Amino acid sequence: MTSDKALGAEDETHIALANALHEEIRDFCALHWPQEACGLLIASIDSPNRIERVVFAKNVAKDPLVSFEIDPQTLIDCHRNARQKGERVVGCFHSHPNGKALPSPTDRARADENGFLWLVIATEHNRAAESGMYRIIHPDAGDNTDHPELRYFRRCQILDG
Ligand SMILES: [Zn+2]
Questions:
Q1: Of the candidates 2, 22, 78, 80, which lies 20 to 30 Å from 94 by C-alpha distance?
Q2: What residues contact residue 132 under an 8 Å CB cut-off, 6+ apart?
């Protein structure tokens, strides 16, 4: 392994997200309380740990008070636009109107893309509380068998930048 690769591995827990963009996400989530709000995190292919922009999505879940589902059309458009611009959808965000910034067991079960970033914004009575940035790790990646019960969320640090 080259030293560059070692550095890259270390940097995987440091996610750059400009304060202004972070606040925009938090405001969007706060405005949707008591419902869950959601969207996607986009980065340039060259620097996947730096969030360049965010796409706000409609939550089309049957019960948006307790779950979220990103509008499928937004997902399709978002992936297509990103490809055309040399970008990648590196993560998603959603809010927890119960005020807890930890990902839920449901989130873990749905985190099918290894390495995907999950930003969780805790919301309480129209204000955003804690933000938690996580990366889902599939320890069995590369293995052909899927063991969702072994997945875990690795806590990441949000850096202003
Ligand atoms: Zn959740």
A1: 80
A2: 101, 102, 103, 119, 120, 122, 155
Cα(101) to centroid of ligand 1, in Å?
A: 8
* CATH number of the domain to which 115 belongs: 3.40.140.10
Name, in order, each residue with C-beta under 8 angstroms of 81's C-beta and a sequence gap of 6 or more: 87
C-alpha 93 to ligand 1 mean position (Å): 9
Q: For residue 96, report the distance from its CA to the centre of ligand 1, in Å.
A: 6
Q: How far is the CA of 39 from the centre of ligand 1 (A)?
A: 12
Per-residue pLDDT of the chain (161 residues; tens, 9 = 90+): 344 444 444 568 999 999 999 999 999 999 999 999 999 999 999 999 999 999 999 999 999 999 999 999 999 999 999 999 999 999 999 999 999 999 999 999 999 999 999 999 999 998 999 999 999 999 877 666 677 888 999 999 999 98
- List beta partners, residue 43: 51, 88
* Number of structural domains the chain divides into: 1
Q: How far is the CA of 143 from the centre of ligand 1 (A)?
A: 27
